TrEMBL record:
InterPro entries: DUF6049. The chain crosses the membrane at residues 655-679. It comes from the Bacteria. This is Glycoprotein. Pfam families: DUF6049. It comes from Nonomuraea diastatica. Residues 1-27 form the signal peptide. Keywords: Membrane, Signal, Transmembrane, Transmembrane helix.
Length: 699
């Protein structure tokens, strides 16, 4: 009989081989091979606590073969052996081989499904109890629901069931902090109302990404910590008053966005009592900046973040916690953050950035301590598997994700060697696209599980449960992910030019281009450098335009020359201020031909009012005749060059030497005339006496 049964099973498997479902990975590339699917809709209760709890399983079977199927049977498969660790859980979930399903098939927890037409589905349900499944102690147990035809499984859905009877001692209640990001990429170049795209209008409406984040915020517990990128809030604030979108053909005006205003209001209301942190404005690539000599910009990004987020959310927003791009930084970036005005003393990191040393087989405590140039910094390391459940990569269901979350956290509390509570941190990727229903279910589960205690991110600190860490691990691959040196060089040049527009003013206010230049350094351009370069060109052009509003008058092609009236004279240099603010500067003039023209050094500061011109008299000395050139450079009061230098031509005449020749010649002519007159008079006197003598002798 055994041989006949075995032979029948083999023949049945061969007969129905075309109907056998592919594994999920294969199904993703060849949907035609997937046949009959079974889905789980509910497991109630999801955490049984006594031997007699009736666990109800419900779901559906669907025929996707394209042809009618024979009668089938849906069954519960189980094993009384608990999973031993999280690694075995991961291996079980990834294994899609029907031959390795749990070995026990429940005879009572099953349901027959009649033949299904192509595309037809049928609902199923059955029950089981822990005693029927032979569960005896707290733990995570693998289960599966399979669809069998003639006793042969053709498809199965794996999941976990956590059994939590009263235990002595009780499992430790681990602290759980959840960080949820609200981070996007910049959508403007400068601070005006011109947007480079209209993606935000789609994101805040309907089922858009930001709209979904707002839905999550409405139901999230007050212990969840929210990380906002203030540049996003800034963009939405502009949109609510009307804006313009840059298009291929020019510009397109958009009306005021009611959705943007409603989103901001919703976030302010929903998170009024929740901890909120601002990442640096525009989410700059801090590690890349630290490696390229842009040391000032991160501090300014943190300052601007606190200012903008506080203003637009209407509350105090902390900036002493940093969540770096990709969750990774190195000691250089850590030092840069620690010495900022906000004194960043807490960082949220990816587990690969701060691995345990030596490696451990259990789940390490999330908190650790790092050394920086400004003292100790608390490092919080996110749990990768728990974080991944908040944004699953492949197709899954809310139920399966919730069951996995329950099982993972239960397994952590049951790990061998744990005697005191540990801290756990969940942090999905920073630009995630959440499923509100899934996130809501996971948050609710976290709040009711007896082995978890929801807490804020700020409350997690290093403790006795902390494990030694290897220090910040920052690889060559991490360096390659940064914004390139060539790209950041242009950003740095634009920043330096932009600072001049503020340094030249008498009030020394902040540059109005700070936010614009920080947008250029956004980590979003790591994967989109082309967009970043386009924005850099726009911002650089805007900065040049502002610099050009302070001009040296009379230096154009229409007035190419100035004259020096004498060998020692004064040439006036005039500067016009069209910036809209009072300015103060120096005019630096240098001769390009010192043998022909010398320029005396000037130290007189020139202050020019709004819309006015100022003139500096520049003493010069010419040693000959001809044209000489000078270079005129405007400088800030700190001596920095402002704008491009201007060349002026000075026409010299050397009047002093010429005058000497003229005076000498005049004296010679005058002396000759006097001598001639004297000789003439003497001759006339002699002739008169001779004539008189002749008259006397004749008489």
């Amino acid at each position: 009989m055994i041989r006949k049964a075995t032979l029948l099973a083999v023949l049945s498997a061969a007969l129905f081989a075309p109907m056998v479902a592919a594994t999920p990975s294969t199904a993703a590339t060849s949907a035609s091979r997937q046949t009959v699917t079974v889905s789980l809709a509910s497991i109630t209760p999801d955490v049984p606590t006594s031997q007699t709890d009736e666990i109800k399983f419900t779901g559906t079977v669907r025929n996707d073969t394209g042809a009618p199927t024979p009668a089938q049977r849906v069954r519960l498969r189980y094993t009384p052996q608990r999973l031993t660790d999280r690694a075995s859980m991961a291996a079980y979930a990834a294994d899609q081989n029907t031959a390795t399903l749990p070995g026990n098939v429940s005879a009572s927890s099953a349901m027959d499904i009649p033949p299904l037409a192509a595309g037809e589905q049928a609902r199923w349900e059955f029950t089981a109890t822990p005693v029927q499944l032979n569960y005896r102690s707290f733990g995570v147990y693998p289960i599966a629901i399979d669809v069998a035809q003639y006793g042969v499984p053709v498809y199965a859905q794996r999941t976990f069931l956590t059994y939590a009877p009263p235990a002595v001692p009780k499992p430790p209640r681990n602290k759980l902090a959840i960080a949820l990001p609200v981070i996007d990429q910049p959508h403007r170049a400068t601070d005006g109302s011109m947007f480079v795209d209209d993606k935000l209008s789609q994101s805040v409406a309907g089922r858009g990404r930001l709209a979904d984040l707002a839905r999550v915020a409405q139901v999230a517990p007050k212990t969840v910590t929210w990380f906002f990128e203030p540049g996003l809030l800034d963009d939405l604030d502009v949109m609510k008053s009307g804006y313009t979108v840059k298009t291929k053909d020019g510009e397109e005006s958009q009306p005021a966005s009611a959705a943007a205003g409603a989103w901001l209001t919703s976030m302010r209301t929903s998170l009024a009592s929740s901890p909120v942190v601002a990442v640096p404005y525009a989410d700059p690539d801090v590690t890349g900046m630290a490696h390229r000599g842009l040391d000032v910009q991160p501090n300014r990004a943190i300052q601007l973040a606190g200012q903008k987020a506080g203003e637009l959310l209407g509350r105090e927003v902390k900036t002493n916690v940093n969540w770096p791009p990709s969750g990774r930084l190195d000691p250089d970036a850590l030092d840069l953050l620690s010495v900022s005005d906000a004194k960043v003393d807490r960082v949220l990191l990816d587990p690969g950035n701060l691995p345990p040393q030596p490696p451990v087989t259990f789940t390490p405590d999330a908190a650790s301590t790092l050394d920086s140039v400004n003292g100790p910094v608390t490092a919080l390391v996110a749990d990768p598997q728990l974080s991944a459940l908040f944004e699953p990569k492949g197709a899954t269901s809310v139920l399966l994700s919730t069951q996995r979350f329950i099982a993972e956290t239960a397994m952590i509390s049951a790990e061998q060697g744990q005697t005191s509570p540990r801290s756990l941190v969940i942090a999905p990727s920073r630009r995630w696209d959440p499923n509100p229903a899934l996130v809501s279910a996971l948050l609710k589960a976290a709040g009711r599980l007896p082995w978890l205690q929801m807490t804020t991110l700020e409350s997690i600190k290093p403790s006795k449960a902390s494990v030694p860490r290897a220090g910040l691990a920052y690889t060559d691959a991490d360096r390659k992910d940064e914004l390139s040196g060539k790209y950041l060089k242009r950003v740095k040049e634009t920043w330096e030019k932009a600072q001049l527009t503020a340094e030249i003013t008498t009030t020394k206010t902040r540059s109005s281009f700070d936010a614009a230049v920080l947008r250029l350094s956004s980590s979003a351009w790591r994967s989109s450098s082309r967009t970043g370069r386009a924005l850099t060109k726009q911002v650089s052009a805007a900065v040049d335009d502002r610099l050009g509003k302070v001009t040296i008058t009379g230096a154009g092609s229409d007035r190419p020359r100035k004259s020096l009236a004498g060998s020692d004279g004064v040439v006036p240099i005039s500067v016009k201020n069209s910036t809209g603010a009072q300015i103060s500067l120096y005019v630096d003039v240098q001769s390009n031909n010192r043998k022909l023209l010398q320029v005396k050094e000037q130290n007189e500061r020139l202050t020019i009012g709004v819309g006015q011109s100022g003139t500096v008299p520049v003493p010069m000395n010419a040693t000959g005749n001809g044209d000489a050139t000078v270079t005129v450079q405007l400088r800030t009061v700190d001596g920095k060059a402002y704008g491009e230098p201007v060349r002026l031509t000075i026409r010299t005449t050397g009047y002093t030497g010429i005058a000497s020749v003229i005076v000498g010649a005049a004296l010679t002519v005058m002396l000759a005339a006097v001598v001639t007159r004297v000789l003439r008079r003497r001759s006339e006197r002699k002739l008169a006496r001779a004539a008189k003598n002749r008259e006397v002798s004749t008489a």
